[in-house]
């Protein structure tokens, strides 16, 4: 709620009231009393890339050396920085901490923001990441958020309020944007960047077009890393089942009056634990090594000027996602073993006849410049990301000998030989807390993406029988502004507007021993106005009401799945026109006695000309389509409570209806074996209506809850923390079938340990009940699926300094 007591923040260099929480000169916790100081032109088809591993030093040798170096560097840096810092400050001893968010590009109290926003706490982050968890582990831990992947750790797909994209192509567009330190990460292989040394994770639900631009009709997931001017650091190590090793650390602080730095990194490793019974040896799938680093340098010669330069790096080496042939019993969604319907399913066994590997390297450098000239702050964010990717796997998930129907061996590889993304944003934001507040800015985006796809006629062959090459070039720019004005002491209005302009071109070439040979070309272009209007009413010091209407936009898309199309290359290219969304939302945010925080939002939306992906089928050729409308409605409710000093409780629940509304929407069904339950088009038995279907990967119900309790012992406490997430039924494709769905999933975690202000030693378990659920499928030529992570347990120790 608005804090009307300026004496709480009457410290040196502070000129904003508590509603905006902080400014560039002052970071204050008033309760704790601390002051921490175009048409892109004609392009020829891309050159042919050989399907080889990404070149460079041996991954394992490189990692061993670099990881040791990073550990030494972080440990050494700790002796050069300021003294240790304590745990997160609380709003009041034993009470709830204030939650600060930047959902509106300003630091504000969560309760004052007229949006449906959720924040993942530090304790929940620690629990989720234990045992090698990656960004997909956030699925279900936030109401209305789902995350899944058919590529594993390297290509996450995000869904908010039922809206997402199941497309597995490496140029797939998504309606959920991921923003990392104010930088939009567009390509899916960027979105899996590991989560470490994070100040906050925010999930903004609903269209965010004004301040965050295109491709945000569903919402955004926003990560803000710890800044280099924060003194101190930490080191953390865990070891668990399947030789799961996780190392994480950071150290930072002032190097002089003007300079500060922060180095942080994470290294995760897991041994292969799935046995391909047709391959020599044991346990040769599902292992990985994943290294990520971040270095931040900051120069602040005065209180008004700040320049931060950030470099980031990721190196992943592992196996591709394990696809399991005929894992669904025909006519049901029951999981079955390798021996068929009468054998129990085992996570640790599979039959596959192809090579399997996955490699990813990412690099980025970014600069953020801030100049506070009194009435306003000017901010410039410049970023460049580059990456290379290679993933090869057995797409039919089995061998021709069975079980089930697998007519031939299918082994394919998808590479990104080159990805370059450049973004630039310049914005100005008023500093005043009274009267009219404003933000305005411009944004530019430029991406060059090369994709090379290969099909192999023999499972372990290295000479492809078919090669498909894509070169995609995308450019976009936007201009935006937002105004907030208090009509009365209790009522304020916010309105924003953004103009978006997008261009995309795709060149496709294909060659091989059979099928279509040649080239194809597609271009898409559009511009659009997005806007939002919201009102906030402070009913009391404990209750805020808000309402919001917003229009969002997703740019037109192109997809060139030429590898398995046997007519012409041009036939393999599909396009989708831009989609727009009108969203209506109202909510209440409450906080009582600093012990209970309860927020509730209800929403309705119409997604017009919705972009969907008709995935797979007999040709394994995903195609983009537009449907007239997707009608959605639902609610989110979140509760956080600290009934007594040592007990903390949270709970969240969401309901999402996201149904296709188009009587002319028909697609082909699966390639073989499944039982489609949708009505067939007259005289077309293999083509089915999807009108009225819930979108894929969109559970109607999602529930999460946590509980933490501590007992003081000595200088610290013995504590226990448990977190749980439930989701209801999900379908895997636009059509519905008896097989390609999962009824529900319930996963829980437990963490028990002893901690002080500096040390923490704990045992942990993830997926404590060992829930086994299908999380996706492939409908190419059999009943192929993939499943969730198994139970992981281990020990973790950490230290703060």
TrEMBL record:
Highest taxon, organism lineage: Bacteria
Membrane topology: Multi-pass membrane protein
UniProt keyword list: Cell outer membrane, Ion transport, Iron, Iron transport, Membrane, Receptor, TonB box, Transmembrane, Transmembrane beta strand, Transport
UniProt keyword annotation of Transmembrane present: yes
Example GO biological process: iron ion transport
Domain TonB-dependent receptor plug: 110-220
Subcellular location: Cell outer membrane
Main location as per UniProt: membrane
Residue ranges constituting the TonB-dependent receptor-like beta-barrel domain according to the UniProt record: 318-768
A GO cellular component entry from the record: cell outer membrane
Family: Belongs to the TonB-dependent receptor family.
Protein's UniProt name: TonB-dependent receptor
Organism of provenance: Sphingorhabdus profundilacus
């Amino acid at each position: 709620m608005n804090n009307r007591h300026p004496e709480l923040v009457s410290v040196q260099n502070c000129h904003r009231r508590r509603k905006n929480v902080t400014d560039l000169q002052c970071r204050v916790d008033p309760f704790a009393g601390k002051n921490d100081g175009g048409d892109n032109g004609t392009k020829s088809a891309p050159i042919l890339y050989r399907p080889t591993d990404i070149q460079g030093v041996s991954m394992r040798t490189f990692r061993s050396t670099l990881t040791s170096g990073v550990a030494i560097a972080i440990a050494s840096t700790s002796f050069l920085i300021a003294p240790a810092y304590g745990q997160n400050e609380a709003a009041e001893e034993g009470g709830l901490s204030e939650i600060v968010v930047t959902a509106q590009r300003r630091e504000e109290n969560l309760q004052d923001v007229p949006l449906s926003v959720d924040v993942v706490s530090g304790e929940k982050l620690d629990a989720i990441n234990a045992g090698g968890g990656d960004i997909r582990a956030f699925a279900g831990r936030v109401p209305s958020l789902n995350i899944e992947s058919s590529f594993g750790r390297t290509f996450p797909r995000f869904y908010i309020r039922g809206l997402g994209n199941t497309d597995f192509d490496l140029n797939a567009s998504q309606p959920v944007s991921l923003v990392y330190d104010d930088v939009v990460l567009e390509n899916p292989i960027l979105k899996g960047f590991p989560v470490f040394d994070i100040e906050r994770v925010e999930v903004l639900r609903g269209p965010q077009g004004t301040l965050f631009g295109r491709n945000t009709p569903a919402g955004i997931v926003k990560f803000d890393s710890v800044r280099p001017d924060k003194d101190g650091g930490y080191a953390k190590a865990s070891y668990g089942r399947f030789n799961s090793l996780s190392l994480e650390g950071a150290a930072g602080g002032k190097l002089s009056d003007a300079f500060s730095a922060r180095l942080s990194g994470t290294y995760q490793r897991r041994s292969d634990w799935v046995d391909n019974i047709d391959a020599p040896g044991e346990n040769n799938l599902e292992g990985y090594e994943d290294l990520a680093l971040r270095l931040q340098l900051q120069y602040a010669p005065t209180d008004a000027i700040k320049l931060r330069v950030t470099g980031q790096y990721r190196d992943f080496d592992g196996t591709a996602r394990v696809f399991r042939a005929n894992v669904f019993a025909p006519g049901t969604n029951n999981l079955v073993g390798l021996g068929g319907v009468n054998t129990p399913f085992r996570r640790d066994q599979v039959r596959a006849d192809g090579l399997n590997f996955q490699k990813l390297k990412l690099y980025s450098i970014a600069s953020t410049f801030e100049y506070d000239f009194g009435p306003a702050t000017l901010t410039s964010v410049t970023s460049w990301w580059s990456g290379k990717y290679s993933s090869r796997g057995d797409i039919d998930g089995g061998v021709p000998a069975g079980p089930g129907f697998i007519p031939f061996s299918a082994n394919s590889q998808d590479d990104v030989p080159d990805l370059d993304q450049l973004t630039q944003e310049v914005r100005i934001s008023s500093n005043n807390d009274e009267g009219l507040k404003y933000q305005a800015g411009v944004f530019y985006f430029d991406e060059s993406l090369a994709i090379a796809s290969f099909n192999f006629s023999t499972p372990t062959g290295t000479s492809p029988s078919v090669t498909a090459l894509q070169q995609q070039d995308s450019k976009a720019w936007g201009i935006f502004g937002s105004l907030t004005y208090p009509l009365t002491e209790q009522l304020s209005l916010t309105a924003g507007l953004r103009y978006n302009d997008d261009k995309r071109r795709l060149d496709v070439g294909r060659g091989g021993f059979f099928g279509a040979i040649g080239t194809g070309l597609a271009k898409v272009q559009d511009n659009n106005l997005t806007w939002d209007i919201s009102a906030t009413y402070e009913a009391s010091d404990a209750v805020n009401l808000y309402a919001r209407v917003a229009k969002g936009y997703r740019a037109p898309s192109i997809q060139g799945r030429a590898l398995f199309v046997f007519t012409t290359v041009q036939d393999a290219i599909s396009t989708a026109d831009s989609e727009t969304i009108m969203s209506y939302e109202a909510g209440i945010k409450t906080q009582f006695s600093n012990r209970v925080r309860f927020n509730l939002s209800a929403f309705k939306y119409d997604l017009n000309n919705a972009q969907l992906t008709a995935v797979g089928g007999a040709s394994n050729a995903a195609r983009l389509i537009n449907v007239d409308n997707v009608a959605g409605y639902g609610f989110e409710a979140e509760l956080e409570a600290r009934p007594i000093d040592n007990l903390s409780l949270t709970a969240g629940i969401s309901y999402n209806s996201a149904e296709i509304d188009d009587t002319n929407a028909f697609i082909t069904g699966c390639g073989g074996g499944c039982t489609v339950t949708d009505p067939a088009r007259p005289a077309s038995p293999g083509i089915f209506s999807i009108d009225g279907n819930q979108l894929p990967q969109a559970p109607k119900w999602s529930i999460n809850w946590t509980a933490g309790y501590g007992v003081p012992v000595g200088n610290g406490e013995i504590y226990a923390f448990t977190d749980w997430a439930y989701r209801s039924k999900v379908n895997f494709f636009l059509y519905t079938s008896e097989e390609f769905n999962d009824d529900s999933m319930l996963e829980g975690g437990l963490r028990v340990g002893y901690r002080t202000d500096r040390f923490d030693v704990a045992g942990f378990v993830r997926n404590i009940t060992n829930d086994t659920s299908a999380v996706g499928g492939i409908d190419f030529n059999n009943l192929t699926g993939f499943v969730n992570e198994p139970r992981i347990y281990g020990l973790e120790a950490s230290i703060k300094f």
